[in-house]
Write a structure and sequence with these properties.
Two copies of one chain form a homodimer. With 137 residues, chain A is α+β, with helices and mostly antiparallel strands. The first copy, chain A, is built from four helices and six strands, in the order ααβααβββββ. The longest helix of chain A has 13 residues. Chain A binds a DNA duplex (30 and 30 nucleotides) through α4.
DNA sequence: ATCCTACAATGGACGAAGTCCAAGTCAAGT
DNA sequence: ACTTGACTTGGACTTCGTCCATTGTAGGAT
């Protein structure tokens, strides 16, 4: 059993076949699948798994901090299992390809108190956009 | 007539009542409306304006660089007429409130060549998340 | 090993955001 | 005033996501 599933079980997760395959599909680096892509891959291993369950499971994983939701403004949200090492994203404006990147510096420190307007700021999301090598003519 | 409409007319835009009211609705600072909000406000002045026209007009304004699309991951995209001064956004995770912010520093310079993976990077979007004063108990 | 039940899965209806199109309308150049 | 190509319209359609009543089952209790 993967570390992930082990961790979840100790948090009271009931270990179902559906949750298992969703977790399996999300294994690896640079994985940024949409919910429907997760569903398609999960369904290869467990054909009767429903979309609702995939959405439920992804939502729980996000709440538990095991998966990050990335909104790429290509239409659907993407689900990123690389939740443990903070990083940002570089994405191709043409084909939607997405890469993890680790910029130097701390954008949170770059937001002066005078620009916080009384918000308690806790998170920062940094998205670089460009054209990937494959899309460059 | 506003500067915006003047500029658009010289670019070959046909000046219709619909486009006029959409442009009017977008006037001002810190405006970050969804397409349906734009439609609702436009319809107060011009009741028969259609959703399709609002979407068309907003899309054209974005292509012309007069309006910026902001994806807030609350569901709908927001349309931002403040396209001429570069800025980023601070948003409330609870109520969706959104503010323009001007962090110091240049995030583009913070992405080393080794982290660009052959992309030609042209744009960077920085989103701060937190809880706004109104949502703090 | 079997039972029990609270939790989880299912599928289909529903909703929100956005796109598309054929038909009708009109801005603006002549 | 005419003409015409650009613009608008409303509604059908798609995609992404949520909701819910019903059915199934993981895992603790016996
Ligand atoms: Mn990632
Ligand atoms: Mn703005
Ligand atoms: Zn690409
Ligand atoms: Zn708020």
């Amino acid at each position: 059993m993967s570390d992930l599933l082990e961790r979840l079980r100790t948090r009271g997760w009931r270990l179902t076949a559906q949750r298992r395959v969703v977790a399996e599909v999300l294994e690896g680096d640079h994985v940024h699948l949409t919910a429907d892509e997760v569903h398609a891959r999960a369904a290869q291993r467990l054909p009767e798994i429903s979309r609702a369950t995939v959405y439920n499971t992804l939502g729980e994983l996000v709440n538990l901090g095991e998966v990050i939701e990335v909104s790429t403004d290509h239409r659907a949200k993407r689900y990123d299992p690389n939740a443990h090492r903070p990083h940002h994203h570089l994405l191709c404006a043409r084909c939607g390809a997405i890469r993890d990147v680790h910029p130097v510096g701390n954008p949170l420190a770059d937001l002066p108190e005078s620009e916080r307007f009384g918000f308690s700021v806790s998170e920062v999301e940094l998205t670089y956009r460009g054209i990937c090598p494959d899309c460059t003519v």
